[in-house]
Specification:
- The protein is an alpha+beta fold.
- Strands 4-3-2-1-5 form a five-stranded antiparallel sheet.
- Strand 2 and strand 3 form a beta hairpin.
- The protein is flat and about 100 Å long.
- The mean pLDDT is 77.
């Protein structure tokens, strides 16, 4: 047989070998991780639940999912064994990197504006002016007539802006 005829089959077999080899390595690493679990370490299950390992048996693990709440899980259901810093950051919200700075975030943005408290800030007066109260109110009929005229002017301007072929839709 010619080598060119066998080349596609050789490439296919090689690709399959490489894929199964990497999958076997991942499975072996996961099995090693599960076997190295110790009581007191934090874990994440394949369902996404975070818990602390209490006891490790041959095929099962006793997990503390909440203070005083224990559950038995299969070893295969452990998705990851977490180090203490990551477990505390996720479960308890403790971030040692933020605590090292001593940075305090204010509750409001007033301290971020850069203005001191002694500087006077121009305030907008939202109260009604007395001058507006002194003006004579317009007759209601005159107001209505102005509004109707404004609406008609707006409609006329709209109609003039239409091009040929455009219909007035209602």
């Amino acid at each position: 047989m010619d080598i060119l005829t066998l080349l596609p089959f050789i490439v296919l077999i090689g690709a399959m070998f490489l894929m199964t080899r990497s999958a076997k390595k991942k499975q072996a690493a996961a099995a090693q991780m599960r076997n190295d679990m110790q009581p007191g370490t934090g874990v994440r299950t394949i369902g996404g639940m975070y818990a602390t390992v209490k006891e490790v048996h041959d095929d099962t693990v006793l997990l503390e999912v909440a203070p005083g709440v224990h559950a038995i899980y299969a070893k295969n259901s452990i998705g990851a064994v977490l180090d203490d810093a990551e477990y505390n950051r996720i479960v308890h919200g403790e971030d040692p990197e933020l605590d090292a700075d001593g940075t305090v975030v204010p509750d409001d943005a007033s301290s971020l504006t850069g203005e001191s408290d002694s500087a006077e800030v121009a305030k907008i007066d939202l109260a009604k002016d007395d001058a507006a109260d002194d003006a004579e109110p317009e007759d209601a009929a005159v107001k209505d007539a102005k509004e109707v005229k404004d609406v008609k002017d707006a409609k006329d301007a709209k109609d003039e802006s239409k091009t040929d072929g455009e219909a007035d839709s209602k």
